Structure formats: structure tokens, C-alpha cells
Amino acid sequence: MCVCIYIYIYIYILFNNTLKFVPQPLISVIFILLNLNQYTDSFHLPGYQYRAMLSNVEIKAKVTDPVQLAEKAAQLSQSQGTIIRQYDTFFNCSRGRLKLRDLQNGSGQLIFYERPDTDGPKLCRYSISPTSDPPSLRAVLSDALGVKGEVRKERRLFLIGQTRVHLDTVEGLGHYMELEVVMRPEQTVEEGQQVAEDLMEQLGVSKESLVTGAYMDLLLKGQADT
């Protein structure tokens, strides 16, 4: 059924030879859903360039002393970081994770990603499509896929070399830290893991504090345990 809808839209655009009448949120949804259903290798819309999935190496850890960690991150990045407020809505999908990130400033990002649920540095493959109308896109995806849950957080972002350091205060969970080593094309996964492990040591993050899964998973687990 979904494939028929995609083909119908494709034929419409092909004969009109333009994307200007198709809302950007709809194009975003089409490509994300195509990615989820593994049709992107053979399906292309005229005038729209699909970007291959990006990758980074990530870790997530529970933080007991956010002030001390922020001081170390500020020293390494030589900055005080940037405060970002994020409201993430997760949707049901057959593989990976699909979320709409509302940046609370009229803009947002539709993000699909795949990442193993293990502790320690791990490879994450992802694709992102920006949106200027998060509420409308949330409504469409909610109707199409159903909502899995929501995550609200305040993020303090530091940039250290090729790594994004996130100090997060997550509603309902507390304080956490994420490292995202943005992989260069020539780098191997092992090299990215080494960058993450070296930065963990510099920040004083212990292996015992590492956690698995996404914040959404931790929130759902907490609800199941109560």
C-alpha cells in the first residue's frame, strides 16, 4: 500500500517535472519511509537529491557531577558551550529509530538512525532532513506511524575536535553525557572508537557509568519498572 502511494506521488512529480507544489515535510516523510522500507537504492524523485546516510561513533553515560564535567568540557573546547532545548517525538518504525526533533525556535529535524544497544563506543548511521514546520510534520507522522514516546531535554553542546560533547538534562531521567565522534570518510570505525575512548578518559568518564539505548528506551524502561 505504501509503495503504491510513493509511486503515485513519483508519477505526479515526473509528469509535472517539478517539486515546487509538493510540501517539503511530505518529501521528508517520503524519503524517511522509503529508507525504512529499503527502497532508496531504486527510487528517486526528479529534482531532489537524496543524501546517503552519515555515521558517527557514540557513547552515552550517566553523570553524577554535571558541574565538574562541564568545567572539563569547557577547558577542552575552550568555550562555555551552547545551550539547546530539544523536544523529541519518537515514532513507531520497523527498524532503527525515527524521531522528530523540535528545536523550539520554529525549526526542527526529522532523524532516522540505527545504532546497536550496547555500552561503550558504537557506530551510529543516520540521516537527517530539516523542517520549518515541526508541528505539521509531527501530526502527519503521528497519524501514519503512531507515537512511541517523547523526550524533553536541555542540551549543552561543546565541540572538541571532531567530537560533539552533549551534556544533557533529561526530563524524567536526570543528567547524562553523550559523545558523538563525527566520522571522516577515510576513518575506520576502530579509529572513531579510539577517539571516543581517549576523550572519555580526558573527561573522567568511567566505563561503569556507560548506558545502552536511547533516552526514549530508558524512559520506557522506567515506566515499565514502576
Automatic annotation (TrEMBL):
SUPFAM superfamilies: CYTH-like phosphatases. Residues 54-221 form the CYTH domain. One of its GO terms (molecular function) is pyrophosphatase activity. Signal peptide: none annotated. Transmembrane segments: none annotated. PROSITE patterns: CYTH. PANTHER family: CYTH DOMAIN-CONTAINING PROTEIN, SI:CH211-156B7.4. This is CYTH domain-containing protein. It comes from Mastacembelus armatus (zig-zag eel).
